[in-house]
Amino acid sequence: YVIQQGIESVTKNKRHFDLRCHALRMDGEWIVGGICGRLGSKGNIITTSHEGGTPILIESVLKDHLHYSYEEAKNMLEGLHECILKTVKAISPMYPHHKEFAVDIGIDENKQIWIFEVNIEPLIRGNFKLLPDKTLYHRICTLRGYAK
Asked: How far apart are CA 121 and CA 44, in angstroms?
C-alpha cells in the first residue's frame, strides 16, 4: 500500500495545476521530449482536459501563473529535467521494452517538486496536441518515430 500526503500544487490564483512530462529513449539514452502544464478549471482539483482542464506551456505556468523570475524558472526547469530523467531511469528496468514514459509532477508553494505518477503508455493528444502552439506535439510525434 502507498499513501501519499496531500500536495497543494496551485497557482497564485489558487487554481490546481500539474505538469505532464514526456520522456523517450533515444539510442539507449533518455531525453525529455516535452513538458506541458495542465491548469484545472476554477474550483476543480482535476487538471485533465476531459475534466475541464487546460493544457498550457510550461513557460506560462512558471512565469504567468507562479510568477517565477527568469532565474527561478530556469532553475525549476533544470530541476524538472533532472527529476524526470532520474525517474524514468529508475522505472525503465521494470519495463525494458517501453521506449517512452510520462511523469506527472506537481510543484508546491515551497518550489518542491512532487511526482504524482508515472504513466507507462503515455497519451499526448489530451495534453500536447491541445496546446495552441503545436511545436511540442510535433516534436514528440517525430521523436516517437526514432525512439528505441
From this structure: 25
Grid cell at residue 79 = 530541476
Residue 107 CB: number of other CB atoms within 10 A? 25
pLDDT recorded at residue 109 = 94
Candidates 107, 145, 8, 130; CA nearest to 57 is 130
* Domain coverage including residue 108: 17-146
| 9 alpha-carbon distance from chain centroid | 13
Average pLDDT, the chain: 94
State the Cα–Cα distance between residues 64 and 32, nearest whole angstrom.
23
pLDDT tops 90 at residue 2 = no
28 assigned to some structural domain: yes
Q: How many domains does the chain have?
A: 1
pTM of the model: 0.93
Task: List the CATH number of the domain containing 22.
Answer: 3.30.470.20
Q: Which three cell numbers stand for residue 15?
A: 487554481
Confirm whether 1 is domain-assigned: no
pLDDT score recorded for residue 126: 87
Q: Is 3 inside a domain boundary?
A: no
Residue 2 inside a domain? The answer is no
Q: How distant, in Å, are the alpha carbons of 86, 88, 130 from that of 4?
A: 20, 20, 29
